[in-house]
């Protein structure tokens, strides 16, 4: 099996992985493993390419655009969840200790008396 066809298979697995509805943590682990394998395989790809390999390459380029969009969506979802956790954490802290964030830096003293 040529390195182009191996890379094509790994890219196809990545594309299929995004289409599935797995748990996000296991999906992220699988994505990381597939990306590492593909990263190690990419330097071994060298021309000349057969017409079949060229069509595989064009298909991989198209799939990579879709995979990049899915990775951006996943990144945005993780950021949103982290922000929600941070907001929940600060809200709980304010509820348990409402006087913790009271500032006393700029006190005003009335000198009339």
Keywords:
113 residues; mainly alpha
So what's the overall shape? elongated
Distance between the termini: 93 Å
Low-confidence runs: none
Structural class: mainly alpha
Characterize the largest beta sheet: strand count, sense, and whether it forms a barrel: none
Mean pLDDT over the residues: 87
What is the domain total for the residues?
1
* Gyration radius over CA: 26 Å
How many β-strand stretches?
Answer: 0
Order of helices and strands: HHH
Count of alpha/pi helices = 3
Quaternary assembly: single chain
Strand content: under 5%
Helix content: over 70%
List the topology elements:
Blueprint: H1 3-19, H2 24-41, H3 51-96
Describe the structure.
By secondary structure, the chain is mostly helical. It has three helices and no strands. α1 (3-19) packs antiparallel against α2 (24-41). The chain starts with a helix and ends in a 17-residue tail after the last helix.
Q: What would a concise description of this structure say?
A:
By secondary structure, the protein is an all-alpha fold. 72% of the residues lie in helices and 0% in strands.
